[in-house]
Amino acid sequence: MSKLLLVDDEADVLYSFQRIFDSPEIQLSTASSGEEALAVVPRLKPDLVIMDIRMGGMNGLETLRAIRQVDPKLLVILMTAYGTTQMAIEAMKLGAYDYLLKPFDVPKLKEIVNQALRAARDMRQTVSDKPLLETEDYEQGIVGRSEPMQQVFKMVGQLAATDATALITGESGTGKELVARAIYHNSNRNGKPFLAVNCAAIPEQLLESELFGHERGSFTGATSQRIGKFEQCNGGTLFLDEIGDMTPATQTKILRVLQSGTFERVGGNAPLQVDVRVIAATNKPLEQAVAARQFREDLFYRLNVVRIHLPPLRERKSDIRLLADYFLKKLARDGGGATKAISAGVLRAFEKYHWPGNVRELENVIRRAMVVSKGDTILPSDLTAEIAGAGGEGAAAGGATGTGGFTGPGSEAAAADIATLAGHLFHWARKDPKLKVLPAVERALVIEALRATANNQVQAAKLLGVTRATLRKRIEKFGIHRELNIA
Ligand SMILES: Nc1ncnc2c1ncn2[C@@H]1O[C@H](COP(=O)(O)OP(=O)(O)OP(=O)(O)O)[C@@H](O)[C@H]1O
Ligand SMILES: [Mg+2]
Question: Which numbered atom of ligand 1 lies nearest the CA of 178?
Fold first, then answer.
């Protein structure tokens, strides 16, 4: 559960927050002045503070400064009405995480809060390479005893002792982000912020301004000055995820900031100086991008000074048993249920399977099997045909259940997947009466089928179990062609 402290002297803001963040995952506390916030913070130890800038008594900026003295890592989001953005800029310079304009756009508010809570978790949950099953902290362990993982642990330790730039490579789901956080937690910057930017998730035009900020009017839509992550993260550690996805202009700026610590905001000409440690990650072979002239060679060498490569799970199969044990315990604890075991057949299947999604896939497979399995042991019949088949024992006998449209092998598993999904969807539907679950699901499934088949309508229709004509009608009815850019 995350603890959120809201500081505002207006009662109706407090009230609307209570409505917006009415969730079992969030514990909302309130303070009606900066002074009160300062009194509350040491006791409450919130994960995130959301605070108005204009308050009677101490204003938001003064309070932020004072909070920084007590806890330099506590994330603070400032709120401001239109017209006082300059204050918000000052706040960002003082190390606020973000700022919000009143009145709120609720989805945006939720998104920023979720992002910040994630960043808070990144900073607070220590990552350790100790054998975790012996400790209480299952949260952030890097599990693995295989030779390649021992090498990784050593490198993490060495890197943590320095300020060097690091490049972490490896396929998707191998634990790159986990390793980045481990370096941070073990470094002497662990008292300062750790911020993560996913370079692939941010549209190209916005990435540069996300990283370096921009001056007002520097491009259409830049209605006010913005402070970028490098500035915000001064003194701390910046994790640049999916670094392969950057425009040449951004690459040039990154190179410069790595070499000299200086950069300019987009549209600005005053050089700014920062002290930021960069840890970069990529699941793409950067060497190839360099050869294809998509990635600057000099930047590659600058990043590649120290490199940690995470081998795919299929190349460290001796870790599978340990990881499976770890996830069984962790997921049981998170879900509040009893710990289940896996049968020898399941372990055999796990060791034979090729794990294209690596550790993340293993975690998901176990999560799903825990839901599907009936007794206290997970059996090969609780796995999908693809994975169980790897063990040579065949999948669940399955058969028609008679309760719905799912037949054949895996029918029980499919039904369980749907039940899990339904639980989530109904949760949202209860919160938002405007959400029409069935049409929304139908629309989303059509989109997913088209994505999964690169817009091949014949294949998508087959996946969905409808005729191509039916699929076309749905595409039209839901206006999907516009969204996916198809005829
Ligand atoms: N060695 C490990 N021990 C325990 N958990 C792990 C390990 N490696 C990965 N995980 C877990 O697997 C999931 C994926 O890891 P992570 O996000 O670090 O992967 P990634 O390499 O950054 O993947 P992507 O390239 O897709 O972003 C996370 O939930 C992480 O906690
Ligand atoms: Mg990642």
Answer: 18
Nearest CA to ligand 1 atom 30: 175
CATH for 2-124 (2.30.42.10, 3.40.50.1820, 3.40.50.2300, 3.40.605.10): 3.40.50.2300
With a Cβ cut-off of 6 Å, ligand 1 is lined by 141-144, 170, 172-178, 283, 323, 359-360, 363
* Interval 25-78: pLDDT, tens: 899 999 999 999 999 999 999 999 999 988 889 999 899 999 988 888 899 998
Going by alpha carbons, the residue nearest to atom 24 of ligand 1 is: 172
Architecture of the domain whose range is 436-484: Orthogonal Bundle (1.10)
Among all chains, which residue has been given the structure tokens 């229709």?
461
Mean pLDDT, range 420-424, rounded to an integer: 74
Tokens of 218: 């520097």
Are 331 and 323 within 8 A, CB to CB?
A: no
pLDDT in tens, 254-267: 999 999 999 999 99
DSSP-assigned states of every residue in 57-96: SS-HHHHHHHHHHH-TT-EEEEEEETT-HHHHHHHHHTT-
What is the model's pLDDT at position 416? 64
Topology at the third CATH level for domain 132-311: Rossmann fold (3.40.50)
* pLDDT, tens only, 340-372: 899 989 999 999 999 999 999 999 999 999 988
Give the mean model confidence (pLDDT) for residues 95-111: 84
**Tokens representing 285?**
């072979």
Atom of ligand 1 nearest to the CA of 170: 21
CATH 1.10.8.60 residue ranges of the chain are: 314-396
